[in-house]
Amino acid sequence: MPQPPIAISFRPLVVSDLATLHEWLHRPHVSEWWGDPGTPEQVEQDYLPLTKKESTTRGYIALLENEPIGFIQSYVVMGSGDGWWKQETDPGARGIDQFLANAEQLGQGLGKAMIQAFMDWLFQDSTITKIQTDPAPENDRAIRCYRQVGFVEIGAVITPDGPALLMVKERSR
Ligand SMILES: CC(C)(COP(=O)(O)OP(=O)(O)OC[C@H]1O[C@@H](n2cnc3c(N)ncnc32)[C@H](O)[C@@H]1OP(=O)(O)O)[C@@H](O)C(=O)NCCC(=O)NCCS
Q1: From CA 89, how far away is CA 72, in angstroms rounded?
Q2: Mean pLDDT in runs of 10 for the chain (173 residues)?
Q3: Going from the N-terminus, what domains does the chain have, and what CATH number goes with each?
Q4: Which of 104, 132, 144 most suits a substitution to test ligand 1, by most atoms within 8 Å of the C-beta?
Q5: Gap from CA of 54 to ligand 1 centroid (Å)
């Protein structure tokens, strides 16, 4: 029997989310791929800017039926700075990074649903041409998930955070 679509929505990250975000980032299935987030103060320093409207990187809490299930951030690729994506010349290119908060929800299709819903929302902005993501080359679960929502492998890249697999989803014509 066909399943009803999973109702996933997003709300902008706010200051009062930072303590929860710190706790999520310390969960082993997240820190395995996102690295050691450090102290609450470091998380505040790193993520408070993502709550600001003027920031080119914005953070969101993903909600499933109003329950928080994960974090996702989007960024303007061109002009990222600090050695990131120096070759990008398309102002319509966006990048995304994400994780599911609950280890027991991994590998069941929730990530695909979350990312698909987020990309559908991003592409409502007609100036956005493509969306990229850059998993670690050995993050097989993430790569498989990203392939299934239409990301195409562009190739291996070296980022300021180390080796990554650059994957891109172009806007559908
Ligand atoms: C990456 C992430 C968002 C993907 O969400 P998810 O719900 O786990 O992924 P999905 O279930 O939608 O898709 C994963 C696919 O990989 C498969 N898979 C699950 N575990 C796997 C593993 N250990 N190795 C390889 N493939 C795996 C799943 O079966 C599924 O494929 P299928 O649909 O063909 O069965 C989530 O796993 C996550 O938050 N991981 C921890 C943090 C992280 O890695 N973030 C991404 C950094 S780039």
Answers
A1: 24
A2: 78 98 98 98 98 96 97 98 96 98 98 98 97 98 98 97 97 87
A3: 8-170 (3.40.630.30)
A4: 144
A5: 32
